[in-house]
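Pasting as-is:
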Amino acid sequence: MKIVISALHFDWRDIADCLAKETGDLGLDGVELSWNESFGRPHCTAADIDALAALRGRHRALLSAHIWNNIAESEPAKAAKDLLQWLQVCERTGTNNLVVHGGSYSGRDEGIARTRRVLEGVLAEFERKRVVLNLENHYAYQYRNCHELFSTAAEFTRVLWLDSQSLKFCFDTGHGNMTGTTAELLSDLAPWLNYVHLADNMGIDDDHLAFRQGTVEWDDVFAQMLNISYNGVFCVEFPVRADRDPFHACVREIRDRWHKTGIGAG
């Protein structure tokens, strides 16, 4: 079990400062970077990525990244090309987990089918590079007419049955709370669960409230994860700035619960 923090949710100046803060100041195992084709803040710049590449093998941080491509809506060949380009960035920087949304699409079934076809075409290369694509649960399809895909277990299984070691599930606690699908996602997708985003909300919008500041049933969430022996990555995805008490409480509770069972040892 490892705990990292999203680079979008704490303050840092450059990559050296980012790595120093998350492992030193915050006492975590690593950082989840944000990569977007704009290469502009608040995402990593091209200079940030070059700096990461230069530091590869010279730091102890576990690196993951969130990418923001709309797989379903993009032209399939372009979507595949974009994913393979991010794979090259992973190889340069030593990043082994990519978190991605399935995207949005005006037709739900067709959007899922399009996402599956794109992923099917790139997974062999991800396997060869030993990088994992973690598909994240998102808003309900009807939420604000956004047409977001992948909020239910049934949607995910249509893609995860591609049965690749480089295709896993990222569970977002806040999104699960918004859609009311937390229990089914953790139960039905347990074999694929590899990555967890930690954020709270009031059950309606994606507020990114701090730990135990909203309506997420944290005791039930953690109990269900322990029941399936989850031992992957936790990523703090709520603001950690002036008030760090919720952050420290979150990290302490995860470490205590997991170490108590022996699942998080080592």
